[in-house]
């Protein structure tokens, strides 16, 4: 079944890295890649610009998109892949939602930050907004300067306080299917032992993964969950992180913009955000 993958780009090095990672990850899969650039101007700015200048700006963005497409096609001699470009005048979130519906997008790939990304935060503001707002398909976030590694091991952190259904787990399975990856279920330990609800949710999760090689790991309680996750990634040589983004989830806690700097979580491997 052909995949339809959306890659938002601002033509930064980080967005080029996202494209490269996606092409390598899905090298054996039939895919249509959609390169999206969304350039918006505030009404106050638009009123001060002539129509001629606005047309020039759009033409320049379109030229950059076409050049990006040409470079990708020329350097990616893969019969499984084809490419389309999308130039949008909408805000990025709206442009993504429009593309999801129009192009039947089933995955978004993007970088941790764009051309103006600040070093002190773990995701750029665009990435944070998209993770918060897009609920129609998974988002694969690629760290800055990340070199492709076959994802032989995928970590799935959970506190077992939530029941996972087939739709929640399906994206995790699909990523595991790509390279027959092992799935490491990581329990973020807040207590001595699981309660009845957590036990049940663990059993259901393991049933979902019965056909996949998987294991369960308990992690000691750290003051910072972010340190906990990255320590685990390094210790077990994890190649990809996957989490379901639901109310009061770990993701929700770390992407609230006021506390990003306090938590300081920077994913050191590609990070799949699965919408609830």
CATH fold-level label of the largest domain: Rossmann fold
**Which class of the largest domain in CATH terms?**
Alpha Beta
Strand count, sense and barrel status of the largest sheet are: 10 strands, mixed
The general outline is elongated
Put simply, the count of helices is 10
Amount of beta strand: 15-25%
Proportion in helices: 40-55%
Task: Report the radius of gyration as a whole number of Å.
Answer: 20 Å
Describe this structure in words.
It contains ten helices and ten strands. α5 links the parallel β4 and β5. The protein has two domains: 3-142, HUPs (Rossmann fold, 3-Layer(aba) Sandwich); 153-269, Rossmann fold (3-Layer(aba) Sandwich). It has 276 residues and is an alpha/beta fold. 40% of the residues lie in helices and 22% in strands. It has helices at 13-25, 43-47, 51-75, 92-103, 125-133, 166-179, 196-208, 225-235, 250-254, 260-263; strands at residues 3-8, 31-38, 81-88, 107-111, 139-142, 153-158, 182-188, 214-219, 240-245, 271-275. Residues 114-123 and 255-264 have low confidence and may be disordered.
Task: Describe, in short, the structure shown.
This protein is of the alpha/beta class and 276 residues long.
